Protein backbone atom coordinates (compact mmCIF):
# COMPACT_ATOMS: atom_id res chain seq x y z
CA UNK A 1 0.00 0.00 0.00
CA UNK A 2 1.35 3.40 -0.93
CA UNK A 3 0.91 6.00 1.77
CA UNK A 4 2.98 9.13 1.17
CA UNK A 5 3.50 11.80 3.77
CA UNK A 6 4.59 15.35 3.27
CA UNK A 7 5.20 17.16 6.57
CA UNK A 8 6.87 20.62 7.46
CA UNK A 9 11.15 -15.32 37.64
CA UNK A 10 10.54 -18.30 36.09
CA UNK A 11 8.93 -20.42 38.98
CA UNK A 12 10.00 -24.08 39.11
CA UNK A 13 7.35 -26.20 40.82
CA UNK A 14 8.26 -29.57 42.31
CA UNK A 15 5.16 -31.46 43.39
CA UNK A 16 4.77 -34.76 45.16
CA UNK A 17 3.70 -37.58 42.89
CA UNK A 18 0.30 -37.71 44.51
CA UNK A 19 -0.14 -33.98 44.09
CA UNK A 20 0.89 -34.12 40.43
CA UNK A 21 -1.90 -36.59 39.74
CA UNK A 22 -4.45 -34.22 41.22
CA UNK A 23 -3.15 -31.27 39.24
CA UNK A 24 -3.04 -33.01 35.87
CA UNK A 25 -6.64 -34.13 35.83
CA UNK A 26 -9.92 -32.39 36.48
CA UNK A 27 -12.84 -34.27 38.05
CA UNK A 28 -14.32 -34.86 34.62
CA UNK A 29 -11.15 -36.58 33.45
CA UNK A 30 -10.02 -33.72 31.19
CA UNK A 31 -6.41 -32.56 31.17
CA UNK A 32 -5.79 -29.33 33.06
CA UNK A 33 -2.12 -28.42 32.55
CA UNK A 34 -0.33 -25.77 34.57
CA UNK A 35 2.02 -24.14 32.10
CA UNK A 36 4.80 -21.60 32.29
CA UNK A 37 3.66 -18.13 31.31
CA UNK A 38 4.97 -14.68 30.43
CA UNK A 39 3.67 -11.41 31.87
CA UNK A 40 1.21 -9.38 29.85
CA UNK A 41 0.17 -6.46 32.01
CA UNK A 42 -2.75 -5.45 34.18
CA UNK A 43 -5.48 -7.67 35.52
CA UNK A 44 -9.05 -8.02 34.32
CA UNK A 45 -12.17 -5.90 34.41
CA UNK A 46 -14.74 -7.21 36.92
CA UNK A 47 -14.98 -9.16 40.13
CA UNK A 48 -17.18 -11.76 41.79
CA UNK A 49 -15.90 -10.94 45.26
CA UNK A 50 -19.42 -10.99 46.72
CA UNK A 51 -19.81 -14.71 46.01
CA UNK A 52 -16.18 -15.76 46.36
CA UNK A 53 -14.67 -17.31 49.49
CA UNK A 54 -10.98 -18.07 49.80
CA UNK A 55 -9.87 -21.39 51.19
CA UNK A 56 -6.77 -21.92 53.31
CA UNK A 57 -3.83 -23.12 51.26
CA UNK A 58 -3.45 -26.77 51.97
CA UNK A 59 -0.98 -27.71 49.27
CA UNK A 60 1.87 -26.06 47.44
CA UNK A 61 2.47 -22.39 48.27
CA UNK A 62 2.45 -21.44 44.57
CA UNK A 63 -1.18 -22.51 44.17
CA UNK A 64 -4.41 -21.05 45.43
CA UNK A 65 -7.90 -22.49 45.76
CA UNK A 66 -11.15 -20.57 45.88
CA UNK A 67 -14.83 -21.38 45.95
CA UNK A 68 -16.15 -19.09 43.23
CA UNK A 69 -19.88 -19.82 42.91
CA UNK A 70 -22.72 -22.26 43.47
CA UNK A 71 -23.18 -24.95 40.81
CA UNK A 72 -26.57 -23.48 39.88
CA UNK A 73 -25.20 -19.97 39.33
CA UNK A 74 -24.17 -20.79 35.75
CA UNK A 75 -26.32 -22.31 33.04
CA UNK A 76 -24.87 -24.38 30.23
CA UNK A 77 -23.20 -22.15 27.67
CA UNK A 78 -22.47 -19.37 30.13
CA UNK A 79 -19.17 -17.80 31.22
CA UNK A 80 -18.22 -15.75 34.27
CA UNK A 81 -15.04 -13.91 35.23
CA UNK A 82 -14.17 -14.79 38.84
CA UNK A 83 -11.62 -13.53 41.37
CA UNK A 84 -9.45 -16.05 43.23
CA UNK A 85 -7.67 -13.46 45.35
CA UNK A 86 -4.32 -13.84 43.56
CA UNK A 87 -5.83 -13.09 40.17
CA UNK A 88 -8.82 -13.70 37.95
CA UNK A 89 -9.96 -16.64 35.86
CA UNK A 90 -12.67 -17.38 33.30
CA UNK A 91 -15.17 -19.95 34.54
CA UNK A 92 -17.10 -21.78 31.82
CA UNK A 93 -19.97 -24.24 31.95
CA UNK A 94 -20.58 -26.36 28.88
CA UNK A 95 -22.48 -29.64 28.63
CA UNK A 96 -22.83 -29.81 32.41
CA UNK A 97 -19.07 -29.56 33.04
CA UNK A 98 -17.05 -26.70 34.46
CA UNK A 99 -13.80 -25.42 32.96
CA UNK A 100 -11.43 -22.68 34.10
CA UNK A 101 -8.81 -20.81 32.10
CA UNK A 102 -7.13 -17.43 31.65
CA UNK A 103 -9.63 -14.61 31.30
CA UNK A 104 -7.72 -12.27 28.94
CA UNK A 105 -6.93 -12.87 25.28
CA UNK A 106 -3.11 -12.95 25.05
CA UNK A 107 -3.23 -11.06 21.74
CA UNK A 108 -4.31 -7.57 22.92
CA UNK A 109 -5.85 -8.37 26.32
CA UNK A 110 -9.56 -8.50 25.45
CA UNK A 111 -11.90 -9.76 28.23
CA UNK A 112 -12.91 -13.21 27.01
CA UNK A 113 -16.05 -13.19 29.17
CA UNK A 114 -17.44 -10.80 26.53
CA UNK A 115 -16.54 -13.24 23.75
CA UNK A 116 -18.41 -16.14 22.20
CA UNK A 117 -18.53 -19.67 23.63
CA UNK A 118 -19.30 -22.41 21.13
CA UNK A 119 -18.54 -26.12 20.84
CA UNK A 120 -15.53 -26.32 23.10
CA UNK A 121 -13.82 -23.02 22.37
CA UNK A 122 -14.05 -19.33 23.22
CA UNK A 123 -13.73 -16.73 20.46
CA UNK A 124 -12.20 -13.35 21.36
CA UNK A 125 -14.69 -10.45 21.03
CA UNK A 126 -12.09 -8.07 19.58
CA UNK A 127 -10.16 -9.91 16.85
CA UNK A 128 -11.61 -13.42 16.64
CA UNK A 129 -8.84 -15.60 18.10
CA UNK A 130 -10.14 -18.94 19.44
CA UNK A 131 -9.02 -20.93 22.49
CA UNK A 132 -9.83 -24.51 23.46
CA UNK A 133 -11.62 -24.51 26.83
CA UNK A 134 -10.04 -27.83 27.87
CA UNK A 135 -6.39 -27.24 26.96
CA UNK A 136 -6.25 -23.45 26.57
CA UNK A 137 -4.49 -23.91 23.22
CA UNK A 138 -4.95 -21.25 20.57
CA UNK A 139 -6.95 -22.77 17.72
CA UNK A 140 -7.49 -19.76 15.47
CA UNK A 141 -5.57 -16.53 15.13
CA UNK A 142 -4.38 -13.76 15.55
CA UNK A 143 -1.88 -14.08 18.39
CA UNK A 144 1.03 -16.32 19.34
CA UNK A 145 0.36 -17.51 22.88
CA UNK A 146 -2.17 -19.86 24.41
CA UNK A 147 -4.01 -19.58 27.73
CA UNK A 148 -3.27 -21.27 31.06
CA UNK A 149 -5.94 -23.66 32.28
CA UNK A 150 -6.88 -24.38 35.89
CA UNK A 151 -8.49 -27.26 37.76
CA UNK A 152 -12.24 -26.86 38.30
CA UNK A 153 -14.15 -29.23 40.56
CA UNK A 154 -17.43 -29.39 42.45
CA UNK A 155 -17.64 -30.00 46.19
CA UNK A 156 -20.86 -29.72 48.18
CA UNK A 157 -22.61 -27.81 45.39
CA UNK A 158 -19.75 -25.28 45.22
CA UNK A 159 -17.48 -24.76 42.22
CA UNK A 160 -13.84 -24.65 43.33
CA UNK A 161 -10.94 -23.52 41.17
CA UNK A 162 -7.34 -24.44 41.94
CA UNK A 163 -4.82 -22.33 40.05
CA UNK A 164 -1.15 -21.55 39.81
CA UNK A 165 -0.57 -18.00 41.14
CA UNK A 166 1.94 -17.09 38.48
CA UNK A 167 -0.39 -18.26 35.71
CA UNK A 168 -3.16 -16.10 37.17
CA UNK A 169 -0.88 -13.08 36.93
CA UNK A 170 0.56 -13.66 33.46
CA UNK A 171 -2.64 -14.87 31.75
CA UNK A 172 -0.73 -16.53 28.91
CA UNK A 173 1.56 -19.42 28.10
CA UNK A 174 3.73 -20.53 25.22
CA UNK A 175 3.26 -24.06 23.98
CA UNK A 176 6.06 -26.48 24.75
CA UNK A 177 8.71 -26.46 22.02
CA UNK A 178 11.49 -28.82 21.01
CA UNK A 179 15.08 -27.74 20.50
CA UNK A 180 17.48 -28.30 17.62
CA UNK A 181 19.35 -31.59 18.07
CA UNK A 182 21.60 -31.08 15.04
CA UNK A 183 25.14 -29.87 15.77
CA UNK A 184 25.53 -27.07 13.22
CA UNK A 185 27.79 -24.04 13.25
CA UNK A 186 25.82 -20.83 12.83
CA UNK A 187 27.94 -19.88 9.83
CA UNK A 188 27.12 -23.11 8.00
CA UNK A 189 25.42 -22.47 4.67
CA UNK A 190 22.68 -25.06 5.12
CA UNK A 191 19.36 -25.09 6.93
CA UNK A 192 16.73 -27.81 6.97
CA UNK A 193 14.05 -25.10 6.98
CA UNK A 194 14.73 -21.65 5.55
CA UNK A 195 12.08 -18.96 6.04
CA UNK A 196 12.29 -15.77 3.99
CA UNK A 197 10.46 -13.03 5.89
CA UNK A 198 9.86 -12.34 9.58
CA UNK A 199 6.19 -11.34 9.58
CA UNK A 200 3.42 -13.35 11.28
CA UNK A 201 3.43 -16.08 8.62
CA UNK A 202 7.15 -16.72 9.03
CA UNK A 203 7.10 -16.45 12.81
CA UNK A 204 4.12 -18.76 13.29
CA UNK A 205 5.69 -21.24 10.85
CA UNK A 206 8.90 -21.38 12.87
CA UNK A 207 7.11 -21.69 16.22
CA UNK A 208 4.71 -24.34 14.93
CA UNK A 209 7.61 -26.45 13.67
CA UNK A 210 9.16 -26.45 17.14
CA UNK A 211 5.79 -27.05 18.82
CA UNK A 212 5.22 -30.08 16.60
CA UNK A 213 8.57 -31.63 17.52
CA UNK A 214 10.82 -30.51 14.63
CA UNK A 215 14.42 -30.85 15.87
CA UNK A 216 16.49 -29.82 12.85
CA UNK A 217 17.82 -26.36 12.00
CA UNK A 218 15.42 -23.44 11.37
CA UNK A 219 16.71 -20.16 9.93
CA UNK A 220 14.55 -17.07 9.40
CA UNK A 221 16.01 -14.23 7.33
CA UNK A 222 14.66 -10.70 6.92
CA UNK A 223 15.63 -7.37 5.40
CA UNK A 224 14.42 -5.67 8.59
CA UNK A 225 16.74 -4.34 11.25
CA UNK A 226 14.36 -5.59 13.92
CA UNK A 227 13.17 -8.88 15.35
CA UNK A 228 9.55 -9.74 14.38
CA UNK A 229 7.21 -6.92 15.38
CA UNK A 230 3.51 -6.09 15.38
CA UNK A 231 3.17 -4.37 12.01
CA UNK A 232 -0.54 -3.38 12.33
CA UNK A 233 0.49 -1.03 15.14
CA UNK A 234 2.98 0.87 12.97
CA UNK A 235 0.47 3.64 12.37
CA UNK A 236 -0.08 4.08 16.11
CA UNK A 237 3.08 3.04 18.02
CA UNK A 238 6.84 3.42 18.10
CA UNK A 239 9.36 0.72 17.19
CA UNK A 240 10.22 0.03 20.82
CA UNK A 241 6.63 -1.03 21.59
CA UNK A 242 6.15 -3.46 18.74
CA UNK A 243 8.44 -6.47 19.36
CA UNK A 244 6.57 -9.79 19.39
CA UNK A 245 9.31 -12.07 20.72
CA UNK A 246 12.60 -11.37 22.47
CA UNK A 247 16.04 -12.47 21.34
CA UNK A 248 16.12 -14.73 24.42
CA UNK A 249 12.98 -16.47 23.16
CA UNK A 250 14.53 -17.29 19.79
CA UNK A 251 17.76 -18.44 21.40
CA UNK A 252 15.92 -20.67 23.88
CA UNK A 253 14.02 -22.41 21.10
CA UNK A 254 16.86 -22.59 18.55
CA UNK A 255 15.22 -20.37 15.94
CA UNK A 256 17.98 -18.45 14.17
CA UNK A 257 17.23 -14.92 12.92
CA UNK A 258 19.35 -13.27 10.21
CA UNK A 259 18.63 -9.53 10.24
CA UNK A 260 19.27 -7.15 7.33
CA UNK A 261 19.66 -10.08 4.96
CA UNK A 262 18.11 -9.47 1.55
CA UNK A 263 17.50 -12.43 -0.74
CA UNK A 264 18.29 -11.68 -4.40
CA UNK A 265 17.75 -15.09 -6.00
CA UNK A 266 16.36 -18.55 -5.36
CA UNK A 267 17.62 -21.57 -7.32
CA UNK A 268 15.02 -24.28 -6.84
CA UNK A 269 17.08 -26.86 -8.76
CA UNK A 270 20.01 -26.71 -6.36
CA UNK A 271 17.79 -25.56 -3.47
CA UNK A 272 20.02 -22.57 -2.85
CA UNK A 273 19.20 -19.01 -1.81
CA UNK A 274 21.64 -16.18 -2.56
CA UNK A 275 21.74 -13.00 -0.49
CA UNK A 276 22.76 -9.54 -1.64
CA UNK A 277 26.04 -9.73 0.30
CA UNK A 278 27.00 -12.86 -1.66
CA UNK A 279 26.30 -15.36 1.12
CA UNK A 280 24.54 -18.53 -0.05
CA UNK A 281 22.43 -20.95 1.93
CA UNK A 282 21.10 -24.33 0.88
CA UNK A 283 17.79 -25.57 2.22
CA UNK A 284 15.67 -28.68 2.38
CA UNK A 285 12.34 -26.85 2.65
CA UNK A 286 11.74 -23.19 1.82
CA UNK A 287 8.94 -20.93 3.06
CA UNK A 288 8.48 -17.59 1.26
CA UNK A 289 6.66 -15.07 3.45
CA UNK A 290 8.04 -11.75 2.29
CA UNK A 291 4.82 -9.79 2.54
CA UNK A 292 4.04 -6.98 0.12
CA UNK A 293 5.55 -3.58 -0.53
CA UNK A 294 3.84 -0.29 -1.32
CA UNK A 295 4.13 0.79 -4.94
CA UNK A 296 5.74 4.23 -4.90
CA UNK A 297 3.99 7.06 -6.69
CA UNK A 298 5.79 8.81 -9.53
CA UNK A 299 5.94 12.56 -8.91
CA UNK A 300 8.39 15.41 -8.56
CA UNK A 301 9.89 15.75 -5.10
CA UNK A 302 9.38 12.13 -4.10
CA UNK A 303 12.98 11.85 -2.90
CA UNK A 304 12.93 14.76 -0.46
CA UNK A 305 13.47 14.09 3.21
CA UNK A 306 9.93 14.69 4.43
CA UNK A 307 8.18 12.15 2.17
CA UNK A 308 7.66 8.64 3.57
CA UNK A 309 6.14 5.28 2.78
CA UNK A 310 4.92 3.63 5.98
CA UNK A 311 6.41 0.16 6.25
CA UNK A 312 9.09 0.03 8.94
CA UNK A 313 9.37 1.21 12.56
CA UNK A 314 11.86 3.81 11.37
CA UNK A 315 9.20 5.21 9.03
CA UNK A 316 6.70 5.37 11.88
CA UNK A 317 9.17 7.11 14.20
CA UNK A 318 10.11 9.67 11.54
CA UNK A 319 6.48 10.44 10.72
CA UNK A 320 5.53 10.88 14.38
CA UNK A 321 8.52 13.15 15.00
CA UNK A 322 8.35 15.34 11.91
CA UNK A 323 4.55 15.71 11.89
CA UNK A 324 4.48 17.49 15.23
CA UNK A 325 2.82 20.92 14.79
CA UNK A 326 3.26 20.69 11.00
CA UNK A 327 0.89 20.26 8.05
CA UNK A 328 0.60 16.56 7.18
CA UNK A 329 -0.67 15.23 3.85
CA UNK A 330 -1.61 11.58 3.43
CA UNK A 331 -2.07 10.06 -0.02
CA UNK A 332 -4.41 7.09 0.12
CA UNK A 333 -7.69 6.39 1.94
CA UNK A 334 -6.89 2.82 2.93
CA UNK A 335 -7.44 1.56 6.46
CA UNK A 336 -3.81 2.24 7.33
CA UNK A 337 -3.93 5.68 5.74
CA UNK A 338 -7.00 6.67 7.74
CA UNK A 339 -5.50 5.22 10.93
CA UNK A 340 -2.45 7.43 10.45
CA UNK A 341 -4.70 10.43 9.79
CA UNK A 342 -6.57 9.76 13.03
CA UNK A 343 -3.33 9.30 14.98
CA UNK A 344 -1.91 12.60 13.72
CA UNK A 345 -4.97 14.76 14.37
CA UNK A 346 -3.80 15.68 17.87
CA UNK A 347 -0.12 15.99 16.88
CA UNK A 348 0.04 17.76 13.54
CA UNK A 349 -1.06 21.34 12.90
CA UNK A 350 -3.36 20.03 10.17
CA UNK A 351 -4.04 16.73 8.43
CA UNK A 352 -5.17 16.43 4.81
CA UNK A 353 -6.09 13.14 3.14
CA UNK A 354 -6.04 12.71 -0.64
CA UNK A 355 -7.79 9.77 -2.27
CA UNK A 356 -9.52 8.70 -5.46
CA UNK A 357 -12.79 8.04 -3.60
CA UNK A 358 -15.08 10.80 -2.37
CA UNK A 359 -15.84 8.71 0.73
CA UNK A 360 -13.21 6.53 2.46
CA UNK A 361 -14.00 2.82 2.76
CA UNK A 362 -16.98 3.13 0.40
CA UNK A 363 -16.20 -0.11 -1.45
CA UNK A 364 -15.31 -2.00 1.70
CA UNK A 365 -17.83 -0.78 4.27
CA UNK A 366 -20.45 1.03 2.23
CA UNK A 367 -21.09 4.74 1.75
CA UNK A 368 -23.07 5.22 4.98
CA UNK A 369 -20.35 3.78 7.23
CA UNK A 370 -17.64 5.58 5.24
CA UNK A 371 -19.36 8.95 5.66
CA UNK A 372 -19.81 8.37 9.39
CA UNK A 373 -16.09 7.72 9.78
CA UNK A 374 -15.16 10.63 7.52
CA UNK A 375 -16.93 13.00 9.87
CA UNK A 376 -14.46 12.06 12.60
CA UNK A 377 -11.78 12.81 11.22
CA UNK A 378 5.74 -4.19 -4.69
CA UNK A 379 6.12 -7.57 -4.19
CA UNK A 380 9.34 -9.44 -3.60
CA UNK A 381 10.79 -10.34 -7.00
CA UNK A 382 11.56 -14.03 -7.52
CA UNK A 383 10.63 -14.26 -11.15
CA UNK A 384 13.88 -16.03 -12.04
CA UNK A 385 13.43 -18.78 -9.46
CA UNK A 386 10.91 -20.92 -11.31
CA UNK A 387 8.28 -20.28 -8.64
CA UNK A 388 5.13 -19.32 -10.53
CA UNK A 389 3.73 -15.81 -10.09
CA UNK A 390 0.40 -14.68 -11.50
CA UNK A 391 -0.30 -11.59 -13.61
CA UNK A 392 -0.74 -9.45 -10.50
CA UNK A 393 2.54 -10.57 -8.97
CA UNK A 394 1.14 -13.00 -6.38
CA UNK A 395 2.44 -16.52 -5.76
CA UNK A 396 -0.37 -19.09 -6.18
CA UNK A 397 -0.32 -21.89 -3.60
CA UNK A 398 -2.50 -24.92 -2.98
CA UNK A 399 -4.49 -25.69 0.16
CA UNK A 400 -1.35 -26.79 2.04
CA UNK A 401 0.50 -23.59 1.03
CA UNK A 402 2.84 -25.32 -1.44
CA UNK A 403 3.88 -23.54 -4.64
CA UNK A 404 4.37 -25.18 -8.03
CA UNK A 405 7.84 -26.28 -6.84
CA UNK A 406 8.25 -29.28 -4.55
CA UNK A 407 9.63 -28.26 -1.18
CA UNK A 408 8.86 -24.55 -1.68
CA UNK A 409 5.99 -23.08 0.33
CA UNK A 410 4.67 -19.52 0.55
CA UNK A 411 2.24 -17.57 2.73
CA UNK A 412 1.05 -14.17 3.88
CA UNK A 413 0.37 -11.12 1.74
CA UNK A 414 2.42 -12.44 -1.18
CA UNK A 415 0.13 -15.41 -2.03
CA UNK A 416 -3.23 -16.34 -3.48
CA UNK A 417 -4.71 -19.41 -1.83
CA UNK A 418 -7.94 -21.47 -1.92
CA UNK A 419 -10.41 -20.27 0.73
CA UNK A 420 -13.11 -22.66 1.89
CA UNK A 421 -15.62 -19.84 2.44
CA UNK A 422 -15.23 -18.96 -1.25
CA UNK A 423 -15.74 -22.56 -2.42
CA UNK A 424 -11.93 -22.90 -2.60
CA UNK A 425 -11.60 -20.04 -5.06
CA UNK A 426 -8.08 -18.59 -4.90
CA UNK A 427 -7.96 -15.24 -3.13
CA UNK A 428 -5.39 -12.83 -1.74
CA UNK A 429 -6.14 -11.55 1.76
CA UNK A 430 -3.39 -9.26 3.09
CA UNK A 431 -4.51 -9.48 6.71
CA UNK A 432 -2.48 -10.00 9.87
CA UNK A 433 -4.81 -12.76 11.07
CA UNK A 434 -4.67 -14.72 7.82
CA UNK A 435 -0.86 -14.66 7.72
CA UNK A 436 -0.79 -16.48 11.09
CA UNK A 437 -2.97 -19.23 9.63
CA UNK A 438 -0.73 -19.56 6.55
CA UNK A 439 2.35 -19.99 8.74
CA UNK A 440 0.80 -22.79 10.76
CA UNK A 441 -0.58 -24.65 7.74
CA UNK A 442 2.77 -24.42 5.94
CA UNK A 443 4.68 -25.72 8.97
CA UNK A 444 2.36 -28.70 9.36
CA UNK A 445 2.65 -29.43 5.64
CA UNK A 446 6.46 -29.43 5.82
CA UNK A 447 6.24 -32.06 8.56
CA UNK A 448 3.83 -34.25 6.62
CA UNK A 449 0.85 -33.23 8.77
CA UNK A 450 -1.15 -31.50 6.07
CA UNK A 451 -4.04 -29.37 7.33
CA UNK A 452 -6.50 -27.32 5.29
CA UNK A 453 -7.08 -23.61 5.89
CA UNK A 454 -10.12 -23.47 8.15
CA UNK A 455 -10.65 -19.91 9.30
CA UNK A 456 -12.97 -16.97 8.85
CA UNK A 457 -11.27 -13.80 7.54
CA UNK A 458 -11.33 -11.28 10.37
CA UNK A 459 -10.14 -7.70 10.10
CA UNK A 460 -9.96 -4.76 12.48
CA UNK A 461 -8.85 -1.17 12.50
CA UNK A 462 -8.82 1.57 15.15
CA UNK A 463 -9.35 5.30 14.77
CA UNK A 464 -10.16 8.06 17.25
CA UNK A 465 -10.06 5.58 20.10
CA UNK A 466 -12.73 3.35 18.55
CA UNK A 467 -12.38 0.03 16.76
CA UNK A 468 -14.06 -1.33 13.66
CA UNK A 469 -14.35 -5.10 13.47
CA UNK A 470 -15.13 -6.83 10.19
CA UNK A 471 -15.55 -10.50 9.29
CA UNK A 472 -17.00 -12.60 6.56
CA UNK A 473 -17.08 -13.69 2.99
CA UNK A 474 -16.25 -10.31 1.49
CA UNK A 475 -13.34 -8.19 2.64
CA UNK A 476 -11.86 -5.49 0.46
CA UNK A 477 -8.92 -3.38 1.50
CA UNK A 478 -8.85 -0.02 -0.20
CA UNK A 479 -5.27 0.48 -1.28
CA UNK A 480 -4.15 3.38 -3.44
CA UNK A 481 -1.93 2.01 -6.24
CA UNK A 482 -0.98 -0.92 -4.05
CA UNK A 483 -0.23 -4.51 -4.91
CA UNK A 484 -2.67 -5.69 -2.22
CA UNK A 485 -6.01 -6.85 -3.56
CA UNK A 486 -9.29 -7.58 -1.86
CA UNK A 487 -11.65 -10.34 -2.86
CA UNK A 488 -15.29 -11.15 -3.08
CA UNK A 489 -18.24 -10.64 -5.35
CA UNK A 490 -19.37 -7.58 -3.43
CA UNK A 491 -22.64 -6.76 -1.73
CA UNK A 492 -25.85 -5.24 -3.00
CA UNK A 493 -27.28 -3.93 0.27
CA UNK A 494 -26.12 -2.75 3.70
CA UNK A 495 -28.49 -3.04 6.64
CA UNK A 496 -27.53 -0.71 9.50
CA UNK A 497 -28.63 -1.15 13.10
CA UNK A 498 -27.63 1.47 15.65
CA UNK A 499 -26.45 5.09 15.49
CA UNK A 500 -23.91 6.02 12.81
CA UNK A 501 -23.44 9.53 14.19
CA UNK A 502 -22.45 8.12 17.57
CA UNK A 503 -20.31 5.42 15.88
CA UNK A 504 -22.23 2.70 17.70
CA UNK A 505 -23.66 0.38 15.08
CA UNK A 506 -23.60 -2.95 13.33
CA UNK A 507 -23.68 -3.21 9.54
CA UNK A 508 -24.80 -6.38 7.74
CA UNK A 509 -23.56 -6.68 4.15
CA UNK A 510 -25.90 -8.77 2.03
CA UNK A 511 -25.99 -10.17 -1.46
CA UNK A 512 -29.51 -11.10 -2.41
CA UNK A 513 -30.92 -12.68 0.77
CA UNK A 514 -27.59 -13.86 2.15
CA UNK A 515 -25.44 -12.08 4.74
CA UNK A 516 -21.88 -12.16 3.37
CA UNK A 517 -20.13 -10.05 6.01
CA UNK A 518 -20.64 -7.94 9.09
CA UNK A 519 -18.92 -4.86 10.53
CA UNK A 520 -19.45 -3.14 13.86
CA UNK A 521 -18.31 -0.38 16.17
CA UNK A 522 -19.08 -0.58 19.91
CA UNK A 523 -21.28 -3.64 19.36
CA UNK A 524 -19.01 -6.42 20.64
CA UNK A 525 -19.08 -9.37 20.37
CA UNK A 526 -21.41 -9.43 17.37
CA UNK A 527 -18.68 -9.75 14.73
CA UNK A 528 -17.11 -12.68 16.57
CA UNK A 529 -20.56 -14.22 16.92
CA UNK A 530 -21.20 -14.01 13.18
CA UNK A 531 -17.68 -15.32 12.47
CA UNK A 532 -18.55 -18.34 14.60
CA UNK A 533 -21.59 -19.04 12.43
CA UNK A 534 -19.61 -18.61 9.21
CA UNK A 535 -16.95 -20.92 10.64
CA UNK A 536 -19.54 -23.63 11.22
CA UNK A 537 -20.24 -23.70 7.49
CA UNK A 538 -23.73 -22.25 7.81
CA UNK A 539 -25.31 -19.39 5.85
CA UNK A 540 -27.02 -16.45 7.54
CA UNK A 541 -30.11 -15.06 5.85
CA UNK A 542 -31.47 -11.55 6.17
CA UNK A 543 -34.27 -12.84 8.35
CA UNK A 544 -31.69 -14.06 10.91
CA UNK A 545 -30.12 -10.63 11.46
CA UNK A 546 -32.57 -9.54 14.13
CA UNK A 547 -32.08 -12.77 16.04
CA UNK A 548 -28.35 -12.05 16.12
CA UNK A 549 -29.06 -8.59 17.54
CA UNK A 550 -31.44 -10.16 20.05
CA UNK A 551 -28.60 -12.15 21.61
CA UNK A 552 -26.68 -8.91 22.19
CA UNK A 553 -29.65 -7.14 23.79
CA UNK A 554 -30.41 -10.07 26.11
CA UNK A 555 -27.15 -11.11 27.81
CA UNK A 556 -28.46 -14.42 29.08
CA UNK A 557 -28.21 -15.74 25.52
CA UNK A 558 -24.66 -14.58 24.85
CA UNK A 559 -23.01 -17.81 25.89
CA UNK A 560 -24.84 -20.33 23.71
CA UNK A 561 -24.34 -20.20 19.96
CA UNK A 562 -26.20 -23.39 19.08
CA UNK A 563 -29.56 -21.66 18.56
CA UNK A 564 -28.05 -19.36 15.92
CA UNK A 565 -25.88 -21.96 14.23
CA UNK A 566 -28.89 -24.26 13.96
CA UNK A 567 -30.86 -21.44 12.31
CA UNK A 568 -28.36 -21.19 9.46
CA UNK A 569 -28.48 -23.36 6.38
CA UNK A 570 -25.81 -25.31 4.57
From TrEMBL:
The lineage of its organism: Eukaryota, Metazoa, Chordata, Craniata, Vertebrata. This is AIF family member 3. The keyword Oxidoreductase applies. Pfam families: Pyr_redox_2, Rieske. InterPro entries: FAD-oxidoreductase/Apoptosis, FAD/NAD-bd_sf, FAD/NAD-binding_dom, FAD/NAD-linked_Rdtase_dimer_sf, Rieske_2Fe-2S, Rieske_2Fe-2S_sf. Keywords: 2Fe-2S, FAD, Flavoprotein, Iron, Iron-sulfur, Metal-binding, Oxidoreductase. Belongs to the FAD-dependent oxidoreductase family. One of its GO terms (biological process) is execution phase of apoptosis. One of its GO terms (cellular component) is mitochondrion. Residues 66-161 form the Rieske domain. Coiled coil: none annotated. One of its GO terms (molecular function) is 2 iron, 2 sulfur cluster binding. SUPFAM superfamilies: FAD/NAD(P)-binding domain, FAD/NAD-linked reductases, dimerisation (C-terminal) domain, ISP domain.
